[in-house]
Amino acid sequence: MVAAANPLASEAGYQILKRGGSAVDAAIATQLVLGLAEPQSSGLGGGAFLMLHDGKSLIAYDGRETAPAAANEKLFLDERGKPLPFYRGLIGGRSVGAPGVLRMLEMAHREYGRLPWRELFQPAIVLAENGFAVSPRLAKLVREDPYLRQDPVAAAYFFDRQGNSWPVGHVLRNPALAQTLREVAQGGADAFYRGRIAKDIEAKVRSHPDNPGLLRAADIAAYKPRKREALCSDFRVWRICGMPPPSSGGLAVAQMLAILSHTDIAQHPPRADGLDPEAVHLFSEAGRLAFADRNRYVADPDFAPMPGGIASLLDSEYLAQRAALIGPMSMGKAKAGVPEGVRSAWADGVSPELPSTSHISIVDADGNAVAMTTTVESAFGSRQMVDGFLLNNELTDFSYAYADENGLVANRVEGGKRPRSSMAPTMVFERDTGKFVMSLGSPGGSYIINYVAKTLVGVLEWRLDLQKAINLPNFGSRNGPTELEAGRVSENLVEALKRKGHDIRLSEQTSGLQGIMRIHVEEGDMWFGAADPRREGSVRGD
Ligand code: DON
Asked: So what's the pLDDT on residue 355?
């Protein structure tokens, strides 16, 4: 079964499974089609995290982009040392990191691939050559984007000669991407990282007319994916595993669940009239506490390791103390805790995150499972197109400012460093048997943490099926206001939360949750796949 953000991509992955491909094989075919049909979200020019369960062990592959060797903490500052306006830093070459997704997929394929590498490229090559129908979401995002048309290559691809964006259903061909994919199908990831394509990326980044960047072909050639130990913790009768730093996703989700296990949120499932205010109160307070720690402590562990190890932030006594800070009224803004091992002051990081990104969940015939979240960061990344794909703007996930009155920001820019992420590909297992229960994840920048935690609470605490849990209105707090999904919540809920001292904001919160869950029916175990109705996700499986 494949659950992905676009029907063409789910179909490509499913056909690979039908031909005997492994979950990793299917993830590769799915990703390559997503890069074509959902270019706003992910692609060859971006990065990803992939969690793989092979029935015994769990591996966390880190394909996060890296900062160029020449970059330093001043990357996003103006001549006077002030942080640039966010988009001024983002659009152009400056924000582009060395792409990671293809090297990471190659590593996973070497270890878990079953079909030949080149075969996995066929579906995307055929679609790039023959064209695919522009989806409603792609048409809308292109139409509304003020920056994409400023890049001549993107303008020629995404718009007609008069400068109009293509309508829904227009058959869009991408021969440049077909050529790139053919080269990588033949020559492996080296064809991308060490040849013509890396040189083309450097030229594009360097030559931007008013915001050139520091990324060079040598940075791309030097890129290395990493295998990391998944971050796992127990929650009631389950074991929840997520991506460790440089993502903050796994840690923040685990902290929220651990904090919530000290509360009676299980007794507050959604009611006939919508979400129970007490559930939203507890969940958003847990979010405040988790985001305070995330903002302060999480960054690339090679550059800014937690003094006591990441485990100090998951210590049960520490989290019990954090949970005790939740009272009947909202705490407003939480302060970061001081876990074991932290002595010096750390400064909080600031980095806004914006719409795009994609999540893929896959289970193959042998029960191997994948959870992969993949991104070019903001919609259409840096808006720089080369060789048929878009370059990421992942470096804007670093903090623009590198210090404040408390000290240095852990997530400041440094050469060769990975920017902090919120992506939270997640797997759930039975605690006692180790049996696989669920694979899920979502796009949404730092909202991802709340989307994934909400879905886990929905399924594990409120016993909803995965689709119903995904469909619940989104809610939570990123340690600012309490954010509720606009148009999905009642006035009564808003009023009840205000009485508990919550500062309420209604916002879009367009999650793109996808997941696969094992369910038990009379005939035995079955797979239940779910895709978020807020985007264009679809599930294909047997
Ligand atoms: O790694 C991250 O957390 C972000 N670059 C992801 C961006 C994202 O999900 C935008 N979403 N809608």
From this structure: 67
Q: Which residues of the chain have pLDDT under 50?
A: 343-345, 349-353
Same domain, 221 and 97: yes
Q: Residue 193 carries which side chain, given as an amino acid letter? A: Y
What pLDDT does 310 receive?
87
- Residue closest via CA to ligand 1's atom 6 equals 445
The atom of ligand 1 lying closest to the CA of 512 is 12
CA distance 32 to 55: 26
What per-residue confidence (pLDDT) applies to 445?
Answer: 93
Among 360, 376, 423, residue to substitute to test ligand 1 (most atoms within 8 Å of Cβ): 423
Residue 44: phi and psi, rounded to 5, are -60, -30
Catalytic residue among 357, 396, 426, 482: 357
* Tokens of residue 378, six digits: 């903001």
Is position 445 annotated in a ligand binding site? yes
Question: Using a 6 Å CB cutoff, which residues line ligand 1?
Answer: 353-357, 375, 377, 397, 421-423, 443-445, 448
Nearest alpha carbon to residue 412 among 71, 136, 102: 71
Q: Would you state the pLDDT for residue 404? A: 78
What is the reported pLDDT for 143?
Answer: 96
Q: Which domain holds residue 56?
A: 2-227+373-398
215 and 233 fall within a common domain: no
- Which of 522, 516, 401 is CA-nearest to residue 466? 516
Are 76 and 148 part of one and the same domain? yes
What is the CA(357)–ligand 1 centre distance, in A? 6
Which stretches within 159-195 are classed as H helix?
175-187, 190-193
Q: Of 353, 399, 510, which is best to mutate to test ligand 1, by the most ligand atoms within 8 angstroms of its C-beta?
A: 353
72 and 176 together in one domain: yes
Judge if 63 and 91 occupy the same domain: yes
Centre of ligand 1 to C-alpha 309, Å, is 25
Give the per-residue pLDDT at 346. 53
DSSP letters spanning 473-512: PPEEESSSSEEEETTSS-HHHHHHHHHTT--EEEE-----
Burial 55-64 (b: 16+ CB within 10 A, else e): eeebbbbbbb
Is 357 part of the annotated catalytic residue set?
A: yes
DSSP 8-state code for residue 421: B
CA 264 to ligand 1 centroid distance, Å: 31
What are the residues whose beta carbons fall under 8 Å from the beta carbon of 403, sequence distance 6 or more?
73, 347, 409, 412
How would DSSP label each residue in 287-340? HHHHHHHHHHH-S-TTTS--TT-GGGGG-HHHHHHHHTT--SS--SSPPP---T
pLDDT at 501: 98
Would you state the pLDDT for residue 201?
98
